């Protein structure tokens, strides 16, 4: 690493400072919603799990060879369960719930992902030997252990640590099928103590690690009139006793844990709440002093890191899709996720080759109630989604198009009312969604575009349409995007179709294209 630094310095003297920027990674590592990360290294390869709440498939697994450039390679589950909330039926939904705060581990040639769900009331452990291509075996049990972290100790015992403020520990049965009776105990009575007694958020988001013979427990907390903060506790045994300290406090970058490189360099992976785009991951260097990990450069988040440069997040985290499939291809690339459980009989890539067909299965009242809405992350600092849709299969009362999904949503699309089609823009930032503009449409094909500007938390979006894919016109007004707790995720590009009069209508999406500015 030192030789590499020296080389960069020498090159920069001859070629200018731009060499440093080209050679080094930049924070944030990903300018998109990848929160609650858990990262491990197996040999020279890193794996990361993250949170996607109510989206399915769930618990994305990402892979990297350099800690900077990531691609989605798998999910821990296709669906979490079968209930009204998860299926978005009978007026229920799982917005802001589902599963979150997973813990990724590698033990005895198996990969494990633990998580939990208040929606189902269960704790989950998913297991596979092939994390990139395999199917995970599901182990689940009650109760739901909030923000749990999984740990396989050297003595053959397996533990879960969970909770908020008061942290608890249990030992699991040998087959991980439940809690070993009589092992539950309080691990740390007041894990928030290092930041004092005046706080908004108590210590939570636990991640446990062992390094240099000691156990290190990472948590996030939020002092009132302050910012999100990293707290670290350490102990000689996993069961304690623990001593804690305020470990890092800069820009609200917090919650995560430790990872080291094959060369022996250490980093902390953390995330930052960054408005409408979501919670975005950062890396900060770590050095060790007196048995404690010391985070950051002089206590600050560095803009650049001595790691390979970011190559961008397309197609690793998001990707364009022409909906053409060859033999052996996935029906949907892993960048796509459904809003809630998909209804598989009502979407198809085979009914019309080269198109995604979305067919309505029931009558709904709103974009947010719609099932089979297909989504991808938005990307900062600025990104756009573009699609072409064939509307010839719409029925009276149908709405279809391209949206930006969060509680305060917006969309551009078409509606069919009184058997006549109109191009519309709907702004859902107020309590009641407003159809801001409606334009008569006299053709069956329509091009749609949504552009989100997240730079410096501007968090605005504009919508456009075209009749020929050459002449684009703005429609409606600007959407003021906002990250809301009821949905608890960054905005998503969303392809949708819903009925308000009768089910059975369909639309065909020809492609989805995503473009993003680079993070510099």
Report on the structure:
With 520 residues, the chain is mostly beta strands. The protein has two domains: 38-295, Glycosyl hydrolase domain, family 43 (Tachylectin-2, Chain A), CATH 2.115.10.20; 337-516, Jelly Rolls (Sandwich). It contains three helices and 37 strands. The strands form eight sheets. Strands 4-24-27-36-29-30-31-32 form an eight-stranded antiparallel β-sheet, with no helix packed on it. The chain has a seven-stranded antiparallel β-sheet with strand order 25-26-37-28-33-34-35, with no helix packed on it. The two termini are 24 Å apart. The model is unreliable at 1-21 (pLDDT under 50). One of its GO terms (molecular function) is hydrolase activity, hydrolyzing O-glycosyl compounds.
What distinguishing features does this structure have?
520 residues, Tachylectin-2, Chain A, Jelly Rolls, eight-stranded antiparallel β-sheet, seven-stranded antiparallel β-sheet, globular
Low-confidence stretches: 1-21
**Shape category:** globular
Biggest sheet overview: 8 strands, antiparallel
Structural classification: mainly beta
Strand content: over 45%
Q: How would you state the average pLDDT, rounded? A: 95
* Main β-sheet, spatial strand arrangement: 4-24-27-36-29-30-31-32
What's the count of strands? 37
CATH topology of the largest domain: Tachylectin-2, Chain A
Mind telling me which CATH architecture of the largest domain this is?
Answer: 5 Propeller
Helix content: under 10%
Query: Given this structure, which CATH class of the largest domain is correct?
Result: Mainly Beta
Number of helices: 3
What is the CATH H-level superfamily of the largest domain?
Glycosyl hydrolase domain, family 43
Total discrete domains: 2
Distance linking N and C termini? 24 Å
